[in-house]
Amino acid sequence: MRDSFVARHPSVLIFLALLALFTLGVTVLAEGFGIGLISTSFVKTLGKTMCLCLIAVAMDLIWGYCGILSLGHFAFFGLGGYMIGMWLMYERTRLIVEGSLAQGALPPTEQEIVAAIGTQIFGVVGSSEFPLVWAFADSLALQLALVVLVPGLLALVFGWLAFRSRVTGVYLSILTQAMTLALALYLFQNDSGLRGNNGLSGLQNLPGVEAPQSVVSLWFFWASALALALGYLLAAWIVSGKFGSVIRGIRDNEARVRFLGYSVEIYKLAVFTLTACIAGIAGALYYPQAGIVNPAEIAPIASIYLAVWVAIGGRGRLYGAVIGAAFVSLVSSWFTGGQIPDLALGPLTIRWVDWWTIVLGLSFVLVTLFAPSGIGGLFDLWQGRRHPDRHGADLGPNAGALREKEATE
Amino acid sequence: MTQLKSSLATAALLAAFGAPAMAADCPIKVGVLHSLSGTMAISETTLKDTMLMLIEQQNAKGGLLGCELEAVVVDPASDWPLFAEKARELLTVHNVDVIFGNWTSVSRKSVLPVIEELNGLLFYPVQYEGEESSKNVFYTGAAPNQQAIPATDYFLEELGVEKFALLGTDYVYPRTTNNILESYLKQKGIAEADIFVNYTPFGHSDWSKIVADVVALGADGKKVGVISTINGDANIGFYKELAAAGVSADDIPVVAFSVGEEELSGLDTTNLVGHLAAWNYFQSADTEINAEFVKAWKARMGEDRVTNDPMEAHYIGFNMWVNAATAAGTTDVDAVRSAMYGQEFPNLTGGTAVMLPNHHLAKPVLIGEIQADGQFDIISQTSEVPGDAWTDFLPESAVLMSDWKDLGCGMYNTQTKTCVQTLSNY
Amino acid sequence: MTRLMIALTALFLLCTQAMAQDATVQSVLQAHRETIEKGSRKSIGAAIDAIAASGLPQAQDVLQVWAAKEMWQRGGDGLFFRGVEKTGRQVELFDFDSGQSVGMLDRDDLEQIKPNSGVRALIGTALVQFQLSDPDPIRRAEALDAIQRSPAAELLAPLRASIPAEPDPALKDRKMRVERLLTMAYDPDDQARITAIEDMSGDLGVDMRATLNPLLVTRIVLAEGLPATANIRREVKPGDPALGLAAAYDMLIAAGLAQPIPDAEARKALLIEHAADGLVAGIPLHQLDTQAARDAAYVQLAQAGLVPRWSTAEAPEVVVTRHRFVEVYNEPSAAVTEAAEQALDEIEMRVGLNQAFDLGLDALSLASIYFLAAIGLAITFGVMGVINMAHGEFIMMGAYTGYMVQQVIADHTLSILVAIPLAFAVTFAAGVAMERLVIRHLYNRPLETLLATFGISIAMQQLAKNIFGTQARPLTAPGWLDGAWVLNDVVSISYIRIAIFVLALIFLGLFLFIMRRTRLGLETRAVTQNPRMAASMGINPDRINMLTFGLGSGIAGIAGVAIGLFAKVTSELGSDYIVQSFMTVVVGGVGNIWGTLAGAAMIGTLQKGIEWLNPSNTLAAQTYMIIFIIIFIQFRPRGIIALRGRAAGD
Fold first, then answer.
1. Closest CB from A96, A201, A212 relative to B110
2. Is A197 contained in some domain?
């Protein structure tokens, strides 16, 4: 079974091999263990990019394969980050507080330690009490479980409500956007107990770990690579089986799949929840590398960018999503880094910091108009694979999509 | 403790590889870490331009330690995690000797762990909520006792305000500042029922209900005053609504901590004459060096541009850094930091700013009334107030003090006589 | 305090008149030179009173000049003058006593005296006696303002005296009203006060409540030792919201009726104090890492008599029940407080109703803003089924057009009149261009339209930043839209909001007219329902789509001008409204203008309602509103007014 799976999908093997090669290469060149050609900040950037690739894979699963354009997956990504961030903050502060209180005349009581941790964490936002949501923050195992459970549960509830009342298409997109906006606004409130706009910070310092950041960054880099590999494998396995056929069917014509006797809602809900969990894991790996997680991260615009990555990379193919996320986010940071010389066009000087967003926006329009299969489409060109010529208007991302005759009826 | 070791190890590592190269390095690199895009670009771009102007002026004077200064400008794009990434990039890839940057507190909190880990040097120019002290950061903006507390005193003493509306944008600076003020007002005998607090989102535009609420506060016969920590664009809608409701500064005065010349240039101020702002600097300050500074700025950026408080903070911070580096004979972070304590430099508003061992400045506090031309009329100027990292008006932080010079600790508990932590709390 | 001040002033007056009959204003000013230079409200009183009581004819003039920040001090001799600023940093000085010009001086040699608004208020109060009968009605109004800002007992007599001679009926009414208010607060005769309260019962003014409320200020005290004449409101049990247990216990401690109880922190400090050789009360210190262990150690110390007694039995909640606490009015007269309570009760009821009405107006105003922002979207999304994420940027474009027009045309009224059609033209053109270049190719692919228009949206936003900078730009409303329509002190709404409301109504009418009464509307409806059939009837669907899209965008542009007038003009203006606009259209029901109206009304009302429930946190209102909408959509997926035969999302 396993052999045949890989044999049927050589791209998975190629992808995993490239990923392994890349990971090895970065390790050798990095500051932590290797020869120091790649700076720690770039290792972190690469590690974060892999987390973004992972959520892009999830996005591709839900959008490219299941046809649900979710504009809210960064909510799950952020929640994952918050869950792991709570433990990281709590534990780091606990070590500091215990060290400090141990110098006192009396050994500290349990309550005193907790109160001091609360003051340290929430003093920044003018409070000192632990809110209820921090109930499990002292346990790594529970918080790790929550990384998957919280996004999963939110997706389950939201998805159940939405799919049950058959909200589809654009409506669903706007609804998911509303969800992420509501969550962001909620977290923005200091009353929500997650430090409001400040969010959770200092996450790059692992409690009790003495290794320098150059080493820690590599650990996270490896973990991200592993998570991406596993996530990719899982996604590839899902879309290759019967389940994959059904969800593709839902994308192309939901009503027909329903008439064939499949419970469309269950399938959609399963994919929605699964991708939310993957997004949560990606977030939990991303934010310790970024160092801070705050509500601005889950603003609606972030999720829209996610859709942009997947669209530019190429929907409906997993490697397309990975390429899109990696390419666009790296190019973005390159352009906004201020490293690219200004372009002088007669009286007008193009400063890339100012103009990059415009280039990105327009290139996105062009991709949507002229290259619906994105960068991934180049592989088809290279392999000489083409969609059958249907002599009609282009309707969907690929040949399985709605046909012209159906669409215009 | 373990973190200390790790940061020491990193520092040693840096010293081994970086330091010899640094001393010989020309030009001296100055990192500028201000958002040039995104929501904060509105405020921060001005500071980037200020830094470029200051560096240019210094180079015209012959540079520093015989070297040219070179600005390394990066754009963290109002994205808080990106601030940490860019700070690391500045310190490790570009090997800058000092960083001038940040505006929002959250961006500072994001950068702190990186700066401390890599032993960098950051000058932070904006008024902030305090409750923080880092060995590697010099806070050239106002701490609460240099802006919020004097302004509240002014309300209590000079305007006789008995009832307070604390309006703020919902983020850390207003939250903490209002928390300190609430505690302070209670100590001054203002009842809890006489303090109305409201938080609005960034960019809020629908103010009619809130303004009506504030007007209604006057119903029990006490004089009402508004302390506004409303940030950025939202002020425009707020002041427009105030003007429309006919709230005169004589009836309900508003003192703002985040409204400067820059923000006022976005609206018509004829109906707002008399409302107040508290800062350490106003463009209208009548001194010779200020006239020169304003002139240089306008010559560079255009006649319609204005100067503001964080610009003065950068002006003082940059010049202090230059003098400290000159005194130390190197740009090495630890040497410069030691040389910073006690550095003096003339304020643009007259008098002298002094760098204290708690990394804050002693600066005068100014209160200005808004005028019809969008400038402020300075009606009150105190003598220099030393900045206080830990406020005296919250019980938990009243016992804390910061002294990096002698105690070598930013969070020293004066009761137990112990250092709570040597890294900052982020 | 004030009486004392009056007495002192009178004394001072006598002295000055007796001793220095030929005193000049300058000499009075010089006598108080330091306090005037300092300009602090706390100390300035003496100086102001001295001038006011000097009996000199120039006194009023000096005070007015001072309050208007026109008083200057000469650097060399410290003399005060009235100054008039001339060009080139020159100031012409006038002597107060003679009124003659004494020449020009450079600003550098002068100090401008800038009284702060607290000092200005004191000057205003001092001026009352001069201004109440001033020939200039503006001055008389100022005097009334000053009385209302800082009412005082001694102002009652001059105010009453000035009423009969008041020629201006409006001012006379105001004077009488202020007189009633002062009577309530300060008249020595209780009956007069009660009459005044009854006279004005039911008045909605903030000043009325501001007069009544101080009469009803209470304090909570121990019942023991209270004089029999005290005006008691009620008995209070400790634990009542007005009297916490801790507060009650503190009162007992202050009265010497209870002992302070050391709290956990204090007990810990005492333990540390009594520790020696790592032991306290015979217990090793390292064992004291729970509260129970510490309590046990403390009890042992207490038994040894080393520390204050403390046990859980003598809890404060037990002790406080042994004493009575009462709430007492500061106002001694029971008849007055009773009348005031009654009047206030009645007023509060009416205020409540009016507040609800005011909230309704706010909600209506917010709804009209959302409606205006969404109406263009209702056309493009509702009628054409096209998702235009760049809709917000069309709003922004309209606002910037308004700003640009104001740069060229200085007159605000004229510039708005030009800006509205121009904004329509600009955004119409932009909309048509976008439809031709992008959207036309993406009909039938709604999700991709969404993404492509999003790309346009971020590009346009950044373009606006590059062109106009990131600073907010002023878009100023014409003067006649300044201010607010005030029904009473509770209900008011700004004219600009009324204007937006009217604009929203006009567009509703316009939309209905175009859709129902014009050829374009007919053709649009035909194309919406069945493009193929419409085409075979000779309608060009391409052209109709283009025009409809242009129309929707054009209306967004006009909405931009309106929103810019009431809020701000920044490049992020559009993105602030886009999600709300979508919500409005989706909640209301796609393809129906009445649905959009209903959606806007619902969202506006809801948001204001939640704000009213939770006034200290506006952010929460927005959060809960969105959550409500998400849930609402579950139950009415097609919105409030659903078109039959179209499933959501088709």
1. A201
2. yes
Residues 6+ apart with CB under 8 A from C110: C72, C73, C74, C75, C83, C91, C93
pLDDT tens, position by position, for chain B (426 residues)?
444 444 444 444 444 443 333 444 678 999 999 988 777 777 788 899 999 999 999 999 888 888 889 998 888 888 888 899 889 989 988 899 999 999 988 899 899 999 998 999 999 999 988 888 889 999 999 998 999 999 999 999 888 899 999 998 888 888 888 988 999 999 998 888 899 988 888 778 888 888 988 988 888 888 899 999 988 778 888 888 888 888 888 889 999 998 888 878 767 788 788 899 999 999 998 888 999 999 999 999 888 888 999 999 999 999 999 999 999 988 899 999 999 999 999 999 988 999 999 999 999 999 999 988 888 988 888 888 999 888 888 887 888 888 888 888 888 888 778 787 777 777
What structural domains does chain B harbor? 2-142+287-364 (3.40.50.2300), 148-256 (3.40.50.2300)
**ipTM entry:** 0.82
Give the span between the Cα atoms of C95 and C84, in whole angstroms. 12
Q: Are C483 and B219 a contacting pair at CB < 8 A?
A: no
Q: How many domains does chain A have?
A: 1
Q: How many CB atoms lie within 10 A of CB C136?
A: 9
Q: What is the pTM of this model?
A: 0.84
Contact C494 B245 (CB under 8 A): yes
A361–C458 C-beta distance less than 8 A: yes
Q: Is A353 among the domain residues? A: no
Which chain C positions have a beta carbon within 8 Å of B37's beta carbon? 462, 465
The structure tokens listed for B206 are 């629908």
Cβ distance A63 to A310 under 8 Å?
A: yes
**Residue among A111, A165, A182 whose CB faces C626 most closely:** A182
**A31, closest residue in chain B (CA to CA):** B92
B274 touches chain C (CB under 8 A): yes
Measured at the CA of A327, the angle between CA A324 and CA A328, to 5 degrees, comes to 80
> Are B221 and C213 a contacting pair at CB < 8 A?
yes
Measured between CA atoms, the residue of chain C closest to residue A192 is C620
Beta-carbon separation of A211 and B74 below 8 A: no
Let me know the angle formed at the C-alpha of A244 by C441 and A385, rounded to the nearest 5 degrees. Answer: 55
Residue A67 CA to its chain's centroid (Å): 18
Partner-chain contact C117 B253, CB within 8 Å: yes
User: For testing the chain B interface, which of A292, A298, A301, A339 should be mutated: the one with the most B CBs within 10 Å?
Assistant: A292
Q: Taking the mean position of all CA atoms in its chain, how far away is CA C578?
A: 26
Q: Is residue A187 part of a domain?
A: yes
For chain A, the chains sharing at least 3 beta-carbon pairs closer than 8 angstroms are: B, C
Is residue A183, in this structure, part of any structural domain at all? yes
Cα dihedral value C343, C348, C353, C359, nearest 10: 140
Report the C-alpha gap between C163 and C200 in whole angstroms.
Answer: 18
Boundaries of domain holding A319: 2-336
Contacting C residues, span 224-243, partner chain B, CB-CB under 8 Å:
none
